[in-house]
Design brief:
Helix content is 31%, strand content 19%. The chain has 428 residues and is an alpha+beta fold. A hairpin with a 2-residue loop joins strand 5 (134-138) and strand 6. The longest helix is centred in the last third of the chain and has 18 residues, at 298-315. The protein starts with 12 loop residues before the first strand and ends in a 7-residue tail after the last helix.
Length: 428
């Protein structure tokens, strides 16, 4: 953890870490962090070597390629004190929960430990599994890495232990050993649900998603079902499968921010791409506008984005906030829509999107609304109707796919999901 003084002190404390890029560890710049009581902010500056690098690009829309210091302050509660691309690598709700529990137990033994700062959270993320290509380094070593010759990302065979430790945290029964084991392994990714990073059986970096004590249906298998249906519907989706660990269903989802050779790919969330704060009402058409400026395939991505919106509506995936859409760097300062992820059928939920369709229309709640706006996504009405028909045909097979060996739901487990897949919008 970063050494800072008590938040009760009004004397500012300053910390600095180097920011590197990719497996080669190309020096990108310096990240400075200032804390004074409850006030926190960060400062970033690109290195001269990066500004002169032939492959240079601005890693974040709010960090243009320029010499000098660029300051970031949280404009409102809940906003990050870091620039967008850096904030995308920080832990979200579940990861912060693990970090906070670990820190709280440590303070019981050492009350003099200072309260956590936002930099502490950022630096607690495991280097090997940090999202995207940004890496943090201090005193010649990448932060939160394993000892030389060892790996911090656990292999597939440790999945059962990871689940047991995560369940202990979720039920407030964790030990110090559970938290020490999860730190890094369970803190690198966003979202509220218990999860971990693992190396899959073929050596690829993957996410293991566990069931929660609050689940009312088979959530993990339902997500794998949705990802498989999405691929059948012509959507580029993260590769996923289900495994059973001691009778518990775990979703294994391959990380798409790594190449086949496990090289790191720079990543931006849609929120970062358009500069949105977490609680703002922002629109998909804003993403399309941004792609016209920075996308390598803006027309193809706009059309695929519309296809995903139809799919989300038809499977009742309403958790479509802007951190659940991402972009991967495609070279030459351009970005591509990342594979779809976090697709979760939500039976019993109001069929209304979190992200608006456009600034004028508001949240998506019908096929009629999507068809009215299809031209904004580079589609004619006839093309849009063909896409709907294709997706409708795929989703009509949801029960068969759900009961396939790859997903593994049984007939009894299908009924709680039926409302998400069988509704009037299917037959528009």
């Amino acid at each position: 953890m970063v050494n800072t003084f008590s938040t009760q002190s009004q004397k500012p404390t300053r910390s600095q870490v180097a920011v590197h890029l990719g497996a080669q560890g190309i020096p990108l710049g310096e990240l400075g962090f200032v804390r004074q009581g409850r006030r926190q902010f960060s400062v970033f500056s690109y290195s001269a070597s990066w500004l002169a690098h032939p492959a240079r690009f601005g890693v974040s829309p709010d960090l243009p390629l320029a010499a000098g210091f660029q300051t970031r302050k949280a404009a409102m509660p809940g906003e990050s004190v870091f620039h967008a691309a850096i904030a995308d690598t920080a832990p979200d709700v579940w990861g912060r929960r693990v970090i906070e529990r670990h820190h709280a137990k440590a303070r019981r033994n050492n009350p003099a430990l200072p309260a956590l700062s936002e930099l502490d959270y950022l630096c607690a993320v495991d280097d090997e599994s940090r999202m995207g290509a940004l890496r943090l380094k201090r005193d010649g070593r990448y932060l939160s890495t394993a000892e030389p010759g060892q790996r911090s990302t656990p292999p597939f065979i440790e999945l059962e232990r990871l689940y047991a430790a995560s369940r202990a945290v979720e039920t407030d029964q964790e030990t110090a050993q559970d938290l020490a084991y999860l730190l890094g392994r369970g803190t690198s990714l966003g979202g509220m649900r218990p999860k971990c990073t693992i190396l899959d059986e073929d050596g690829h970096l993957a996410i293991g998603k566990f069931p929660s004590v609050s689940d009312g249906h088979e959530v993990t298998r339902a997500e794998v079902l949705a990802l498989r249906l999405a691929a059948m519907a012509g959507i580029r989706a993260a590769l996923a499968r289900c495994v059973s660990i001691g009778g518990v269903s775990v979703a294994i989802i391959r990380r798409f921010d790594r190449t086949e050779q496990q090289e790191r790919i720079p990543y931006l969330s849609a929120a970062s791409l358009i500069g949105a704060s977490r609680d703002e009402d922002r629109a998909y058409t804003e993403i399309v506008d941004a792609l016209r400026s920075v996308g390598s395939e803006p027309v193809l991505d706009a059309r695929e984005l519309w296809r995903r919106l139809v799919f989300n509506l038809l499977i009742t995936n309403t958790d479509d906030h802007l951190h659940n859409t991402g972009f991967l760097y495609d070279g030459c300062g351009r970005w591509r829509l990342a594979p779809a992820f976090d697709l979760n059928p939500m039976p019993g939920k109001l069929r209304e999107s979190k992200t608006w369709l456009s600034e004028d229309t508001g949240p998506i709640d019908s096929m009629a609304m999507l068809l009215d706006q299809c031209v904004e996504f580079a589609l004619s009405r006839e093309e849009a109707l063909q896409i709907h028909a294709q997706i409708q045909s795929v989703i009509s097979q949801w029960r068969t796919v759900a009961m396939s060996r790859e997903v593994g739901l049984n007939a009894r487990e299908l009924e709680p999901l039926a409302q998400a897949f069988e509704h009037p919008q299917i037959d528009y």
